[in-house]
Amino acid sequence: MRIVAAIGGSILLQDYNAERFKEYAEILKELSEEHEIFVVVGGGKPARDYITAVRNLGAGEAKCDDIGIEVTRLNAKLLLLALGNTAYQKVPHNFGEALEYSASGKIIVMGGTEPAHSTDAVSAILAEYVQADLLINLTSVDGMYTKDPRKYDDAELIEEITATDMIEFIKGNDVKAGTYEFFDMTAIQMIKRSNLETVIANGNKPQNLVKAIKGEKIGTRVISE
Question: Where does the record place the Aspartate/glutamate/uridylate kinase domain (predicted)?
């Protein structure tokens, strides 16, 4: 299978140590023996911190995005270090480069691409661009909930949902650079128009990536209309 995995920056970069990078690298290496793997890495807290500083300097949102993108690419380079020779040792700056580098047969790791596209959106566009069989979004919660589970005890996990229903769910969310929203509109529109098989799961448990690929019941699955 051709798989695109989006890994949140806050998942990988915990307390500025290398352990989570190493954990994911081992799993990705094993998966690459049977599957074609593309990884999109987010910026996490470091990106948000830099974006706050840039915004406080009076820069516009496009410049905030530009700085955030640079941080995602730094995170991508760290994962490349952990992966070693199993990965193509250059971070693609666009989708054409990602596809070109994949001809090497190695794991491809990238960050952001351009302003106004979160790494969630990048992963969905990449999955469409390379005609992936599966998109896996690894985030900081177990999947999509009826409300923010970190704030509300009565939040319920949504095990299955259509892309159309997801669009209705996230309408009106803030899309400023560096703000955390569960999933952005561009990402879900890509999933809808390409009918991408998508799983959203908790990335704090790296083995969830393996479970999602195996089709085990985990997180939230975006089903066909």
Answer: 1-202
102 appears as a binding residue in the annotation? no
Whether residue 117 is annotated as binding a ligand: the answer is: yes
Was 44 annotated as part of a binding site? yes
Q: Is 36 annotated as a binding residue?
A: no
224 assigned ligand-binding residue: no
| pLDDT tens track for 44-92 | 888 888 999 999 999 888 899 999 999 999 999 999 999 999 999 999 9
Per residue, the 3-state secondary structure of the chain, as one string, reads: CEEEEEECHHHHCCCCCCHHHHHHHHHHHHHCCCCEEEEEECCHHHHHHHHHHHHHCCCCHHHHHHHHHHHHHHHHHHHHHHHHHHECCCCCCCHHHHHHHHCCCCEEEECCCCCCCCHHHHHHHHHHHCCCCEEEEEECCCCEECCCCCCCCCCCEECEEEHHHHHHHHCCCCCCCCCCCCCCHHHHHHHHHHCCCEEEEECCCCHHHHHHHHCCCCCEEEECC
Residue 178 annotated as binding? no
Q: What is the pLDDT of residues 143-161, one digit of tens each?
A: 888 877 778 888 888 899 9
| 114 annotated as a binding-site residue | yes
**pTM for the predicted model, two decimal places:** 0.91
Domain-wise residue ranges, the chain = 2-223
Instruction: Please tell me whether 119 is known to bind a ligand.
Output: yes
